[in-house]
Amino acid sequence: MILHIHLSILFSYITFFHLISITLAQSENYIIRMNLSAMPKPFTNHHTWYQSTLSSALQNSQFTTTTNNLNSLISSKFIYTYTHVINGFSANLSPKEHELLKTSPGYISSIPDLPVKLDTTYSPQFLGLNPNKGAWHDSNFGNDVIVGLIDTGVWPESDSFKDHGMTEIPSKWKGQCENSIHFKKSLCNKKLIGAKFFNKGLLAQNPNASLGLNSTRDTEGHGTHTSSTAAGSRVDKASFFGYAAGTASGIASNSRVAMYKAIWVDGRLSSDIIAAIDAAISDGVDVLSLSFGINDVSLYEDPVAIATFAAMEKGVFVTTSAGNEGPAHRTIHNGTPWVITVAAGTMNRDFQGTLTLGNGSKIVGLSLYIGKFPSNNFPIVFMGSCDNVRELKKVKNKIVVCEDKNGTSVYDQLRNLVEAKSFGGVLISNVSDASFTQNFAFIVVNPINGEIVKAYIKSHNYNSKKSSSIANLSFKKTVFGTKPAPSVDSYSSRGPSKSCPFVLKPDITAPGTSILAAWPSNVLVSYLGTKEAFSSFNMISGTSMACPHVAGIAALLKGAHRDWSPAAIRSAIMTTSDIFDNTKEHIKDIDDNKDATPLALGAGHVNPNRALDPGLVYDVGVQDYVNLLCALNFTQQNITAITGSSFNDCSKPSLDLNYPSFIAFFNGGNSSKTLHEFHRTVTNVGEGKTIYTASITPTKGFSVSVIPNKLVFHEKNEKLSFKLRIEVERMAKLKKVSFGYLSWMDVKHVVRSPIVVTTMKMNS
Ligand SMILES: *[C@@H]1O[C@H](CO)[C@@H](O)[C@H](O)[C@H]1NC(C)=O
Ligand SMILES: *[C@@H]1O[C@H](CO)[C@@H](O)[C@H](O)[C@H]1NC(C)=O
Ligand SMILES: *[C@@H]1O[C@H](CO)[C@@H](O)[C@H](O)[C@H]1NC(C)=O
Ligand SMILES: *[C@@H]1O[C@H](CO)[C@@H](O)[C@H](O)[C@H]1NC(C)=O
Ligand SMILES: *[C@@H]1O[C@H](CO)[C@@H](O)[C@H](O)[C@H]1NC(C)=O
Ligand SMILES: *[C@@H]1O[C@H](CO)[C@@H](O)[C@H](O)[C@H]1NC(C)=O
Ligand SMILES: *[C@@H]1O[C@H](CO)[C@@H](O)[C@H](O)[C@H]1NC(C)=O
Ligand SMILES: *[C@@H]1O[C@H](CO)[C@@H](O)[C@H](O)[C@H]1NC(C)=O
Ligand SMILES: *[C@@H]1O[C@H](CO)[C@@H](O)[C@H](O)[C@H]1NC(C)=O
Ligand SMILES: *[C@@H]1O[C@H](CO)[C@@H](O)[C@H](O)[C@H]1NC(C)=O
User: Fold this and answer.
1) Given the DSSP bridges, would you call strands 349-357 and 362-366 parallel, antiparallel or unpaired?
2) Separation of 635 CA from ligand 8 center, angstroms?
3) Which parts of the sequence belong to the Inhibitor I9 domain (predicted)?
4) pLDDT tens for residues 480-527?
5) How far, in whole angstroms, is CA 121 from its chain's centroid?
């Protein structure tokens, strides 16, 4: 598996086999937390202490070696010193070295360096943002707020990073742009104010890893897209080959962007990512956007959860993506109580092509074909499920109609048509994502319209040599107002969170499907036939795209409310979100076309203007999170791995975090427990004197009550508490997931929280 080029040079005097058996094959990266209060006096700084600790461990684990060799050995094994995310360092160690390090004075804990999963304009208007009022206006478009992104780098020349009309860089900013290959620091400006890259962990693990470019420059596109989505400047005449044409703008178009590149072509290691978060914290970012996560690890072994705990303590708002592994339950990552976890939704926009049949009927279908297509009429033929390439080759220069039936997927059909060098086609299918049509002149028509197309062809003797069925195709139409919208897309990962099921996740839905944003002009966006296609904007989908929308919104809220804590901002975003779509029905789940449960949707679809004035917030302090970790029955050592504190006060353990949402497990529908009680405290961030009354949307099978059901506030920032009781009405016939809502209402505000009651087992 992993070979060590540094080591093999260093120890070239040892026989090759010896080398393999001692260190080579099994060296791994570890992230090691140290106890800074245990640092012996002679050391003046933590960095030299960590290096010396590693040095002692290496000396004890190896045969005797010269000082010279030891120094270069350390420099090949020591990866990063961390200052903010944890007190500690990362190193590449053999199992034996790792064991010896554990006996070092001051050692607290270590975790393996896990790889993360990357979760790969019109959206501001869709979110209701307006220059003259609301969140854009009140925050001056997020002016002076700094949004940091850990991603694949940035393409500084993009129009989305022009700084026209921007004020000076905020004086609190301590970061900078670093010179790197093809990235002079002079490329930064008042919009793009930070650019750093981190790849030592990746290279320690795999010295031959391809970096793409050893530079903050984006060679993949993802980071350029997410950063321009969060805080890109306005760009007129943006489009994706004619689709989605218009002005593209980041959500917080006056906020600053700092890019920390830690995601590389050949790897995405936590050691690099938390080094990037460490730098972002010390540079002074206000908001961090993380479009990646690690599945199926406990909170105390999840480097992203650990690093974001430190960020939260320092007041940095952290937004993360839920993942793209939906629609099954428990597929979510970043189900971490101290971040906001973002699900992906659709917008009210479709990209279309039109098939005009010879008799004049126009059939509209989905398409994102980026090329040109002749506008004249061509013969049109029906080729069933298009699974026979030989037959397809016989119908060159005809419009081919295929049906998505019986197992031949649209992707297989596409492949067959490309292989047969077909000319253009119509796919009859229910698929809702037509992005696969980019490089081939296809439109996707639904089965009802498909019947019309088939009937037309049939009535014009398509089997005979004298067939007279003809049609033409046109592309590049963008339509708005499609209904219903928004919906939760099926790829978006679903809760409950495995790492902490007691906190309802995801938290919120934001636009994630077919998002147009900036792209490096030399990074492939698509193919046209076999030709590469490039564009300075690209349209892609994923919770990766939803996450920076919320980063932008958090930047607007920070711009308008400097004193709000990360939990207050999260609460404002959640309790003011929308649960109705543009048909005035509950937002749907694309997967089953039923009402989306909060395990898919979170509290709702984000509404930035309303978030500006939430009325009440559910705030959470650091000790509240510690109380939760204590109640999870983590060992003190495990809690220290997260908090970094030597002493974690577990005198008041509680699973009942002061969160703006509720989830109750009635295990297997079979527990003897028939009552679940929650305690919450809300803070009045509205005007002062006001009275809120509780309103409950029923949860099927349960009776939900609030005590008291009236909260009388006398002043701003006053805190009042209440209890929410969920009682089983009939244990016999419970649904797997039931949900309803609690809303606190005064004359001006609706403060809504989702309530989920599930018979799912808590851990399975
Ligand atoms: C890394 O590259 C070197 C030189 O090309 C080669 O000898 C070595 O086997 C490679 N190691 C791995 C792990 O691929
Ligand atoms: C990448 O560049 C940095 C300086 O910008 C340098 O220190 C490092 O050695 C380079 N890494 C590789 C693999 O070239
Ligand atoms: C497309 O087909 C329709 C119906 O046959 C016809 O009226 C129209 O002129 C055609 N368009 C072109 C550009 O040939
Ligand atoms: C679908 O395929 C299965 C076997 O592959 C076959 O038994 C069935 O008849 C097919 N159905 C249709 C509608 O073609
Ligand atoms: C398409 O959707 C309709 C309605 O949901 C369904 O009846 C039909 O079976 C679906 N067809 C295919 C090919 O999946
Ligand atoms: C064209 O033919 C289709 C299939 O027979 C039919 O449904 C449609 O109504 C026809 N259109 C016109 C304008 O006659
Ligand atoms: C923690 O341990 C206590 C005592 O054993 C138990 O009652 C409780 O259910 C446990 N909590 C969790 C979250 O497992
Ligand atoms: C978690 O606690 C267990 C039991 O004390 C311990 O073995 C493990 O190393 C701890 N892990 C971390 C990361 O603290
Ligand atoms: C860290 O070291 C201090 C001083 O030696 C000690 O009091 C404390 O318990 C240690 N903390 C941990 C988590 O080991
Ligand atoms: C509930 O428990 C009973 C008896 O223990 C068992 O027979 C039944 O299958 C359980 N039901 C569920 C939904 O787990």
Assistant:
1) antiparallel
2) 7
3) 29-118
4) 888 999 999 999 999 999 999 999 999 999 999 989 999 999 998 887
5) 19
Cα 553 to Cα 135: distance, rounded to the nearest angstrom: 8
Q: What is the pLDDT of residue 417?
A: 87
pLDDT tens, residue by residue, 370-412: 888 998 999 999 999 998 899 999 988 899 999 987 666 777 8
Interval 364-381: pLDDT, tens: 999 999 888 998 999 999
Quick one: which of 484, 458, 407, 436 has its CA closest to 444? 436
At 67-105, the pLDDT tens digits run 667 788 888 899 999 999 999 999 999 999 999 999 999
CA distance readout (Å), 647 to 84, 484, 628, 639: 18, 51, 15, 9
Q: Is 456 in the pocket of ligand 6 (CB under 6 A)?
A: yes
Measure 425 CA to ligand 8 centroid, in angstroms: 58
Residue nearest to ligand 6 atom 5, measured at CA: 456
End-to-end, the C-alpha distance of the chain in Å comes to 32
Q: Which two tokens mark 373?
A: 């297509």
Strands (E), 551-674: 588-589, 616-617, 662-665
Residue tagged active-site, from 119, 151, 350, 624: 151
Mean pLDDT within 150-175: 96
Quick count: other Cβ atoms within 10 Å of Cβ 707?
Answer: 11
> Residue 335 and residue 312: Cα distance in Å, rounded?
15
Which atom of ligand 2 lies nearest, measured to the CA of 203? 13
Question: Among all ligands shown, which has an atom nearest to the Cα of 112?
Answer: 8
Pocket of ligand 3 (CB under 6 A): 356, 358, 360, 375-377, 472
For residue 305, report the distance from its CA to the centre of ligand 5, in Å: 41
How many Å lie between the centroid of ligand 6 and the Cα of residue 53? 81
Nearest protein Cα to ligand 10, atom 9: 670
> What secondary structure does DSSP assign to 237-261, as a single string?
EEEETTEEEEEE--TTTTSEEEEEE
Q: Contact 264/209 with Cβ under 8 angstroms?
A: yes
Q: Say if residues 386 and 429 touch (Cβ distance below 8 Å).
A: no
Supply 647's token pair.
């002493």
The whole-number average pLDDT for the span 532-551 is 93
Alpha-carbon gap, residue 739 to 699, rounded angstroms: 5
**Cβ of residue 458 lying under 6 Å from some atom of ligand 6:** no
User: Residues lining ligand 1, judged by CB closer than 6 Å?
Assistant: 3, 208
Q: Is 222 a catalytic residue?
A: yes
| Banded pLDDT at 672 (limits 50, 70, 90) | low
Whether the CB-CB separation of 760 and 329 falls below 8 Å is answered with yes
Region 123-149 average pLDDT: 77
Whether ligand 8 lies within 6 angstroms of the CB of 109 is answered as yes
Q: Which range is least confidently modeled, 59-63, 256-260, 329-333, 707-711?
A: 59-63
What would the pLDDT profile of 634-661 be if each residue is shown by its tens digit? 999 999 999 999 899 999 999 999 999 9
Predicted confidence at residue 579, as pLDDT, reads 98
Q: How far is the CA of 214 from the centre of ligand 2 (A)?
A: 6
Tell me the CA distances in angstroms from 623 to 364, 649, 653, one per residue in order.
Answer: 57, 8, 10
Query: What is the pLDDT confidence band of residue 224, given thresholds at 50, 70 and 90?
Result: very high
φ/ψ of residue 184, rounded to 5: -75, 145
Rounded-to-integer distance, Cα 501 and Cα 494, Å: 12
| Nearest atom, ligand 7, residue 655 CA | 13
Q: Which ligand is nearest to the CA of 178?
A: 2
The closest-lying atom of ligand 10 relative to the alpha carbon of residue 759 is 13
- Please state which of the ranges 174-188, 288-302, 395-409, 466-480 shows the lowest mean pLDDT: 395-409
Q: What is the DSSP string of 585-616?
A: SBPEETTTSSBPPHHHHTT-B--HHHHT--SE
* Burial classification of residue 753, based on how many CB atoms lie within 10 Å of its CB (0-12 exposed, 13-18 middle, 19 or more buried): buried
